Amino acid sequence: MDIKRVALDAVNETIVMAVVPMDYKGQVAKRINEKMPLATVKGFRKGAVPKDLVEKQYGKAIKQEEVKKVVDLALERYIQSERLNLLGTPLAKVNEHFNWDAEELVFEYEIGLVPAFELDLEAKNNIIKYIVTADDKLIEGQVARIQKQFGTPIPQEVVEAGSDITGTFSNPANGISNSTTITLSIFKDKATADKFIGKKVGDVVTVNTKGLFEDDHQLMDYLKVGHDTVHGLEVDVEFSIEAINVAELAELNQELFDKLFGPGNVASLEDLKVKIKEDAESQFAQQADQKLLGDVTEFLIDNTKFDLPSEFLKKWLQTVGEKKLSSAEAEVEYARSEKGLRFQLIEGRAMAQSDIKITFEDLKTFTTKNIRQQMAQFGQTNPTDEEVQGIVARVLSNQEEVKRLSDQVVAEKLLELFKEKANPTTKEVTYEQFIAASYGE
Length: 441
What we know:
Layout: E1 2-7, E2 12-19, H1 25-35, H2 51-81, E3 86-92, E4 105-113, E5 128-133, H3 136-149, E6 152-155, E7 164-171, E8 176-182, H4 190-194, E9 204-208, H5 218-222, H6 227-230, E10 236-248, H7 254-261, H8 269-303, H9 310-317, H10 327-353, H11 360-377, H12 385-395, H13 399-421, E11 425-430, H14 431-438
Parallel strand pairs: 5-11
Antiparallel strand pairs: 1-2, 2-4, 3-4, 6-10, 7-8, 7-10, 9-10
């Protein structure tokens, strides 16, 4: 068999395979002989059909099957031997005039190659690494929320200015249905708050989303709508009142401190504020890291130029998956996934350039840390190593979990790499400023 590659451009090639009788005739003859005792042809007893009639009746199908086996195996071995780094899988070129009776059978396969490109992780950029601080306003607000959360709710007959109102925001036409508890202070203007004054359980208050809150992003919390939806959203929503309470605030005493943070860890209001600040800034640091990772990702995608075998990939997308796609559907799917594919290639190049590898020990260490954190959240602050490792072993026996955790380990290692190489500018901000920066506002 003769196999060769024909380059169309840097990322598109055709593999041409010329198959001759000696590549398959031995296996075809063997299959014909195996068929002889089983062949049935009218006018002959089973097993007594002349070989030429067996070949006439079954030979073409057997030849096609055996040639396909030969071609598939040769193609797989060729790709391995040439160390071809493919995007997608080879696509057989359709030849409507293919002649199975020809002495030489020629098969062609289109392939898309991973592009060669340079990745400059230290390129000049305007990326900012945010240090998010918990200011006094946030800390005081959190203290107030704790007192309210652990206070005693006292039912009320009607809504008053300081009421906690539990109910559901809904607008079926826009897919809005979210149960929540609100206070009248959340609304941007007094006129909206006044609509609730004097209302009872079972009453429904209609408000419009435009200018409902000081910040439109609050629609994401109270109505559970996406970020892309909140800006300019101008629809009526109904709030169905289900409960009205006023909170008798919890006393800031040792009993409450021990309940929140364990015996003896917090002993005063000042200790509580320090703890709130530490916990908040730890969470903010994680969010800031995710933003940094996202910003570096966007920068690298926008500034690392390389061609993809786009037309090949669109054709390939039509052939994969349970549901075959039309050319128009494949076009849409490619547009949706192209950015992700580009970063996947950039990610691989970054790891290769920096010799980053994910070992089983990395995965085990990461999983152990996660398990301990999760157990602590449920009050198990001092589990034994045996308990933890038992859970880790169960988690790592699940292939889907291994894939998910591996992706997280890769993201963690890339984040550290980007922090080092991208050399972002550090900027200290409040959480409100960070949220504004995160949404480009």
